[in-house]
Every structure is written in structure tokens, then in C-alpha cells.
Amino acid sequence: MISRDQALVLKIGGSLIEHAPMIIRTIRESRRSILIIPGGGVFADAVRQKNISDTAAHFMAIAAMDQYGWLLSSYGLPVTRYPVIREFPAILLPYGHLMETDPLPHSWDITSDTISASYARLLSVPLVILKSLDYIRASDGPVSALTPGMVTGDLDPAFVPYVTEHQVRGFILRGSDHARLAGFLRGEEVMGTRFGATI
Prior knowledge:
The chain is built from 7 helices and 9 strands. It is an alpha/beta fold. It has a single domain (8-195), classed as Carbamate kinase. The protein has a 7-stranded mixed beta sheet with strand order 3-4-2-1-5-8-9, with helices on both faces. The chain has a two-stranded antiparallel ribbon with strand order 6-7. Helix 1 runs parallel beside helix 7, helix 2 (41-48) runs antiparallel to helix 3 (54-73) and helix 5 packs parallel to helix 6 (159-166). The chain is globular and about 45 Å long.
């Protein structure tokens, strides 16, 4: 069970753009210490449609995360350019920090999923990922826990190896179910997929 006072890194998937106002309201009302990592969404999709070199595409997609972050901020949360946990929720605009530190390979195998995991590792806090599904799906169907070596199309290819190697722990749940999200942030057991140690 996740501790009610545990700080979190929380990634909001780009597919949840229509639910963003309610998600941000739910996070605000939780009064938790949360650093939000925006996905790339439609902004990153525009980059994927072009034949662009890996390095250019990598940083253009990260810039797309900033765009989604600004959109999320319009619903009432502040932005930050620095990966720090404060007493109130804030939205990280990661482009400047990742341009400066450049910690990850430049590849479409790495998207905002693994980028959010890298920030959870950096800050030594659990990672929560909001997606548009109840459970992550492996080859044999939905799973309640990720295991080393698992292959899924619901996360970027680097995610499972990254969280396994670096012992990042966390939970993936449906962000469009606002009651479920609110319950999770209150420390309740909800449907979803765990990874790493029990949180």
C-alpha cells in the first residue's frame, strides 16, 4: 500500500488529453507532493510522422512534452523547469533539464514512459503512470504486475528493462477513471499494474 504522505512522480499520458482538466483537479485536491511529467501526446505524434534523425526526433519529442505540460498547467498547476519535489503538485517542463543532462539514449525506444521512470529514479520516489487502460497487456493478456523481460506494446520498449535495472517501483492505472485516481491518491487499493517492490 502506498503511504498517503509519500511523494510521487506522476506521468500523465498524452492519450488522456480530453480528461486533463479533471485529472489536474483531482491531483490538486489530493494536496500531495507530486511532480507531474507530461506525456508527448498529439505533439509528439507530429514528430513521429516525419523522417527525422534519432537525436533531432528525441529532443523534438521532449519539446512536445513541454507543450503538453503548458496545456496541463492551464488547468491550475504551476510549471517548473527543475526536477524537485515540493509540498504542492507541479508540472515539470523537461526539455531544458534533459538538454543539459542528456541521460538517455536518443531512440524512439525511449518515450515519456522511460523519461518519467528516470525522474522517479533521480528523486528516489515511486512512479505513477496514468494511461487509457485498466491493466498493462502482455502477450497472454492483462497483468497486475510487470516482470523482468516482459514485452508489452502499452509501454515504450525501454521501460521494463529500465525499471528492472534501476529498481524503480510504482503503479500504472487508468487516468480517465477519476474516482479510481482519487482513491489511489488517498492511499486506497485500486485496479492497475504494479512494478518493482510493493509500494
